[in-house]
Design a protein that fits this description.
The complex is a heterodimer of chains A (about 350) and B (about 140). Chain A is of the alpha+beta class. Chain A is about 45% helix and about 15% strand. In chain A, helix 1 packs across helix 4, helix 2 packs across helix 12 and helix 9 crosses helix 10. The longest helix of chain B is centred in the C-terminal third of the chain and has 12 residues. The chains are: A alpha+beta (about 350), B alpha+beta (about 140).
């Protein structure tokens, strides 16, 4: 089955993915940081019972992973694909993960909160992501009876998540705004509105990929609908600015030359470091959206970005790789993927 | 250590990130940590233990109040920036409320209520005016 990132979504020229997180807790027991190993196991058991019971409408949608049974490498590969956070894998003893086959829907058990419902879809699809997360929330609440206060909303370990317990985010690809230096200004302009805007990549990779995360910070006093509508409105303005900046950049013959040369490197390189790949993939993505690069889809590039990350490469190889082996394996995967012809250049 | 995000302020929060196929630590200042939704928000609001004691504790024995569910005291919550359990919000409600107001600018939930499924409607009314968010570059503003 295809993963969520192997499928194209709306506005995918600038929006890589939409994500909704809902933090939820059970009543009557401490939050996970204060639970013993056996108490954590009981929470995991109750969750599995709620998801996999005979009458459950979501039993077939998920499979369960005991995080403690995973090697650190496997857990890091999950984190690279955005299924779990780095915090979640650091102390994974007593933690459970329920994940759909396409990795779009996940339920993380015993992270900061008892439950983190996570839905991630390709492109600009926050409303659709929320609809799926809301459905899961409603189904699980019937069995797990989430902690809720009429005034404060859903009760969470971190007071910054009180209220809806919902963080919505968009991963945006903004190569033109990054090039013109506008990204830093956007971040400071959005801060007073309770909106975060920062590089979605690790510090070592952030200057290569031009991928930014736009998310809400306020969860109390705003409904889910309002938070999503606000974020979509702001994203729309950023995307319009990115398009205008791209239109100017693409007319420059040196930019066109850079796109074609980058494609040449990716199609023929024998060794590729991840950061180098990320920088070239960002340029190719820009080239596809501008119509300069044909026969390669945006979701093919996005899928490659996911699967050639260091820990995911080791997982595919099935054994530890030296630095050169890793670079050679990445170059091979990228070469082979780009050699396959696709019908639609913009899908 | 200087914040690895802004490169300006001293780091006070250390978070885990995945980088280069490894789990590594990343140092953030209080401001950047808040941007990432991390760190101790109570510390970020300028609350110190002495201030809290002066502001909220008139009777000395109030210091000894513990949550019956998780055993946390109010000072435990302020020190860690994390609440121990759902019951803590009721036990320490009066003392937590001013902080919650400062974090969110509100203390009234307006979203989903358990038992119902809230559908996102198209063209919903905005709570924050976003029409004029200045996202354009400095040159284009002129």
């Amino acid at each position: 089955m295809k993963k969520w990132y192997d499928v194209s979504g709306p506005e995918s020229e600038s929006v890589i993915s939409s994500c909704v997180h809902l933090s939820r807790n059970m009543r009557g027991i401490p939050f996970p940081a204060g639970l013993t190993a056996s108490e954590k196991a009981a929470v995991v058991k109750r969750t599995c019972r709620a998801v996999f019971s005979k009458n459950s409408s979501i039993a077939r949608d998920f499979h369960f992973i005991d995080m403690a049974s995973m090697s650190l490498g496997e857990a890091i590969a999950l984190a690279e694909r955005g299924v779990v956070s780095a915090d979640f894998i650091e102390n994974r003893c007593g933690c459970g993960l329920l994940v759909s086959e396409d990795e779009a829907e996940c339920i993380l058990v015993n992270g900061d909160d008892h439950f983190l419902i996570q839905v991630r879809l390709p492109g600009l699809a926050l409303k659709e992501s929320y609809a799926l997360a809301d459905r899961l929330d409603t189904i699980l609440d019937k069995s797990l009876n989430f902690a809720f206060d009429k005034r404060l909303g859903y009760l969470t370990c971190n007071p910054a998540l009180l209220g809806t317990g919902m963080i919505v985010s968009l991963n945006l690809h903004l190569p033109a705004l990054a090039e013109t230096g506008a990204a830093a200004r956007i971040s400071s302009n959005l801060q007073p509105l309770g909106i975060s805007f920062y590089s979605a990549l690790s510090p070592s990779a952030e200057r290569h990929g031009a991928i930014f995360r736009l998310s809400n910070r306020m969860t109390l006093g705003l409904s889910e609908n309002e938070a999503i509508t606000n974020l979509c409105g702001i994203a729309g303005q950023i995307i319009a600015q990115e398009r205008a900046a791209r239109d100017k950049l693409i007319k420059d013959i040196s930019v066109q030359d850079t796109v074609e040369r980058s494609l040449g490197i990716l199609k023929s390189a024998r060794l590729l470091g991840f950061n180098e790949f990320l920088g070239l993939a960002s340029i190719i993505r820009f080239g596809i959206a501008a119509g300069l690069v044909k026969n390669i889809s945006l979701c093919k590039v996005d899928g490659l970005v996911m699967c050639v990350q260091p820990a995911n490469l080791v997982l595919q190889a099935g054994y530890g790789l030296t630095q050169n082996e890793e670079r050679a394996f990445r170059a091979k995967i990228v070469r082979e993927a780009l050699a396959q012809r696709e019908g639609n250049g913009n899908g | 250590m200087i914040c690895q995000c802004c490169g300006k302020n001293p780091a006070s929060t250390y978070i885990k990130i995945v980088s280069g196929g490894k789990l590594t630590e990343y140092a953030l200042c209080a401001e950047c940590a808040r941007q990432f939704g991390r760190g101790n928000l109570f510390a970020g609001l300028g609350y110190r233990m002495n201030d809290i004691v002066r502001e909220f504790f008139n009777a000395s024995n109030e210091n000894d109040v513990l949550c019956p569910c998780c055993g946390a005291s109010f000072s435990d919550i302020v020190r860690s920036g994390k609440v121990g359990c759902a019951e803590c919000y009721h036990v320490f409600f009066d003392r937590l409320l001013p902080m919650i107001r400062q974090i969110h600018g509100s203390d009234v939930h307006r979203g989903k209520i358990p038992g119902g499924s809230l559908q996102v409607q198209k063209g919903g009314k905005l709570a924050v005016r976003v029409k004029d968010v200045p996202v354009q570059s400095g040159d284009e503003k002129k």
